[in-house]
Amino acid sequence: MQYDPIKRSLGKVFNSSLFLRKSFYKLLDILLLRSWHIRKELKGWGRSKQKNLDFLDAGSGFGQYVFNVSSKHPDWKITGLDIKEEQIEDCNTFFGKLGRKNVGFKKADLTKYVSPSSYDMILCVDVMEHIEEDVQVMKNFHASLKDNGMVLISTPSDQGGSDVHDHHHDEEYNNDGSLSFIDEHVRDGYGIDELKEKLLSAGFKKAEVYYQYGKPGKISWKLSMKYPILMLNKSKLFFVILPLWYLVVLPIFPLLNCMDVRKKHKTGTGLIAKAWK
């Protein structure tokens, strides 16, 4: 199953007003566990940094993380890259209406994009699993970072986080033997050592990788994304009952996501990686 048809349908709804778009971002921050991990890492990284930093979101999509970072750091210069022209046009229009002159989006292929020594931080969320030439992208990140700059990556692990080649796994960040949920990935997730070694081979002087989506995260994912999207793939009529579904289960997510962020996991279906130039 694919995300894009659902993304386009949701986009039409939430792009109808600035209020709905901002509400959509806030909802994603609550529902998506990866957002909790990313925001925790960004907060820790940004706390000790000076003003006027250069920040790159490599694979910016809807612009969720650009919105979050630009809200907290209006003095940073923030760039979003995406391979899809429609996403770039959409985000430039929205952030233009917000009047955030420190934010800009442009189309780019991460396997080719290099901006030498330009960025203090590069964020890359749910992108590496879609790219065959992953080490080349990491080399491009390294070249594009300033000295002592950091890349922050979120990606599925090899513990059931992705399933491209066969369709008897589950969705992203799960592996319970049911129907494939993601059919756009080019690899079945990364091992911790594998991802760390690739980052070091790309030139980074230091890399740290840890699991996300442990037991609490798996439950959160099923309730927040798996079941609703499975329903929507069957029939658009489920858009009618979707608000009721989230009204019932929404109070559960902060607890589950907080548990996953605070706990160190021996295994998990997602990975967070940090590497320094």
Query: Distance N terminus to C terminus?
Result: 37 Å
| Largest sheet, strands/sense/barrel | 7 strands, mixed
Q: What share of residues are in beta strands?
A: 15-25%
Helices and strands, in order, run as HHHEHEHEEHEHEHHHE
Backbone structural class: alpha/beta
**Count of DSSP H/I helices:** 10
Explain what this protein looks like in three dimensions.
By secondary structure, this protein is of the alpha/beta class. It is 46% helix and 18% strand. It has ten helices and seven strands. The protein has helices spanning 4-14, 18-31, 33-47, 64-72, 85-98, 134-144, 192-201, 215-234, 238-249, 252-262, and strands at 54-58, 77-82, 103-107, 119-125, 145-156, 206-212, 270-276. Strands 3-2-1-4-5-7-6 form a seven-stranded mixed β-sheet, sandwiched between helices. Helix 4 links the parallel strand 1 (54-58) and strand 2 (77-82). It is globular. The termini are far apart. Residues 162-182 have low confidence and may be disordered.
What are the defining features of this structure?
alpha/beta; 18% strand; 7 strands; 10 helices; 277 residues; 7-stranded mixed β-sheet
What's the quick description here?
This protein is of the alpha/beta class. Helix content is 46%, strand content 18%.
Which helices and strands, and how do they pair?
Blueprint: H1 4-14, H2 18-31, H3 33-47, E1 54-58, H4 64-72, E2 77-82, H5 85-98, E3 103-107, E4 119-125, H6 134-144, E5 145-156, H7 192-201, E6 206-212, H8 215-234, H9 238-249, H10 252-262, E7 270-276
Parallel strand pairs: 1-2, 1-4, 2-3, 4-5
Antiparallel strand pairs: 5-7, 6-7
